[in-house]
Amino acid sequence: MNINEIHDLNLAALEHEGYEVALKNFILFTTYNDEIILAISQEHMSISFDYLSKYEYLYEVVFLDEISFEKLYNKFLELRTDKQMADIQQEQQDATSSDEDFNVSEFLQTGADILTSEESAPIIKFVNSLFYKAIKKKASDIHIETHEYKSEVRYRIDGVLSKHIELDKNIMALVISRIKVISNLDISEKRIPQDGRTQVKIAGKTLDIRISILPTFYGERVVMRILMQSDDIPHLADLGFSKDTISKLDKVLTNSYGMILVTGPTGSGKSTTLHAILQKIVNIESNIITVEDPVEYKSDNINQIQVNAKVGLTFASGLRSILRQDPDIVMIGEIRDTETASIAIQAALTGHLMFSTLHTNRAPAAVTRLIDMGVEKFLISSSVLAVLAQRLVRKLCVHCKTEDTLAKEYRNEFDLPKDLVLYKDVGCNKCNFTGYNGRSAIEEIFLINDEIKHYLKGEVDDITLLALAEKNGMITLTQQIKQMLIDGTTSLNEAIRTGIK
Questions:
Q1: Which residues neighbour 425 within 8 Å (Cβ) at sequence distance 6 or greater?
Q2: What does the pLDDT read at residue 94?
Q3: Which of 65, 84, 75, 83 is CA-nearest to residue 30?
């Protein structure tokens, strides 16, 4: 039978209770002459009949040629997706009906905001809703993952991934193709990684999205990083930094040359802190240039360079070029190797205020890391002004947190009082059922004073440096996470997750 002979395809057929499972077995519930029939194909006949042998359907079974069956099958997928997207849209409308700034119905119907005029396409609506939900939930990344039998979307919120929705693999393939289209990537290429960017306009505000697509065993995996504008960069106090730390930083920032390092593991907010510092000291008299990988915060008053290893633009080569641009302040996204470290140290010694990051757990460990990279100790003592180590700690939702009785046996790890009441996460609709709402930065600032410089003339180790820093008044990360536990603002599980003891 030809596809043109089957008509009156509607959602009534899709609402049949056995339709979803039948579709997975290549059996299509459709209508012909106002009667429901089952359409199958020669190619998938064995799978279809195996399924039909287990159920007693009173409907006529009709064979379609391969082309007709494929067209009808795709039409079913489209209609099912449209229905799913309508449900998602309705859910978002219900959740945001009182929101004055973001009207989801208007957002999903405004083609200009998402670089398209095809407002009716369900896949386009779904991709649009992904961006909208990400902004609404304050997510930093959107993950699309393809597994053997399903695909799912997850958001990284407050540093932790949480599941958003699960979809059929065939539908997700269309979603990924749409993402490739808006980021100018090759939709036919599924064998090699691809990187791109796109812009999304929501309620008059433009967001940059960095897109990475990676082929995996079961299909493509997509990660979309939401890049912020300079207007979105918080102040140090808003990040949760203590008045003592801000005061010490302010004194260090009065120097016209030298190096300030920010350390911590991936995802600890180092880039945000560096940009917050730069926005604090930016002025019309200074030439500020950065080399970043990637440029995560677009700023109108700072000259930003994007690393591009394919054409030889690395941190080291970019830094060399920057120093010929008569800069006053330089920021390098990360010191990864000996070459970059040496150039950065020399720049700090020759009249430039230098900012960068390192991957160390504690602030004093930055000194030994530079030594391991081959930087002479006397150069470190002459150039490094301060090292700021930080973590981002999730704060418990005040609406649903409850007493944690099981955590009592772990009090000794953080030297907590025996009668202290600890709290744990529960989850409610106020916190998207995560148990946490927002994050706060905790930090330790290690100042290179005369005593530290004298110590650097001999053998150096992390433990002694940490002891000297505490002796000179450094409030450690351990002390601050302990205080958060005492105040009941975070849980013991979160404190353990940060790796601070």
A1: 396, 397, 400, 401, 434, 435, 436, 491, 493, 494
A2: 53
A3: 75
* Cα–Cα distance measured from residue 104 to residue 130, given in angstroms and rounded to the nearest whole number: 11
CB 281 within 8 A of CB 236: no
- The span from the CA of 352 to the CA of 358, in Å, is 19
State the 10-residue block means of pLDDT for the chain, 501 residues long. 49 55 79 78 84 76 82 74 59 46 43 40 80 85 91 90 86 87 86 88 75 92 83 79 91 93 90 89 89 82 86 88 91 91 92 93 93 92 94 92 78 79 87 87 93 90 91 91 91 85 66
Q: Residue 464: count other Cβ atoms within 10 Å of its Cβ.
A: 13
Amino acid letter for position 384: V
Separation between Cα atoms, residue 392 and residue 266, nearest integer Å: 11
> If you search the block for the tokens 């020399």, which residue do you land on?
346
Q: State whether residue 138 is helix, strand or coil.
A: coil
* Cα 336 to Cα 41, 332, 340, 358, 382, distances in angstroms: 57, 10, 7, 8, 21
Yes or no: say if 430 and 152 are a contact pair by the CB < 8 Å rule.
no
Strands of the sheet containing 384-396, edge to edge, are 303-306, 288-292, 329-332, 353-358, 258-263, 384-396, 436-447
Contacts (Cβ under 8 Å, ≥6 apart) of 356:
259, 261, 262, 331, 332, 333, 334, 335, 344
Do residues 194 and 177 touch, judged by C-beta distance below 8 A?
no
Burial of 197 (0-12, 13-18, 19+ CB in 10 A): middle
C-alpha radius of gyration, the chain, whole number? 28
CA 267 to chain centre: 9
- pLDDT for the residue 120: 39
Q: Cα separations (Å) of 409 from 394, 405, 406, 486, 488?
A: 22, 9, 7, 16, 17
Task: List 384's β-bridge partners, or say none.
Answer: 259
CB 395 within 8 A of CB 490: yes
- DSSP assignment string, 20-62: HHHHHTT-EEEEETTEEEEEEESTTHHHHHHHHTTS---SEEE
Q: What is the Cα–Cα distance from 249 to 253, expressed in whole angstroms?
A: 6
For 310-328, b/e burial (b = at least 16 CB within 10 A) is eeebbbbbbbeebbeeebb
Helix (H, G, I), strand (E, B) or coil at 286: coil
Spatial distance between the Cα atoms of 210 and 207, rounded to a whole number of angstroms: 10
Q: What is the pLDDT of residue 220?
A: 93
- The residues pairing with 297 across neighbouring beta strands, listed in sequence order, are 228
Specify the residue for token string 């289209």.
Answer: 181
Q: Which amino acid is at 7?
A: H
Which residues is 144 bridged to in the sheet? 153, 222
Quickly tell me which residue has 């990475």 as its tokens: 212
- Look up tokens 């005369």; give the residue: 450
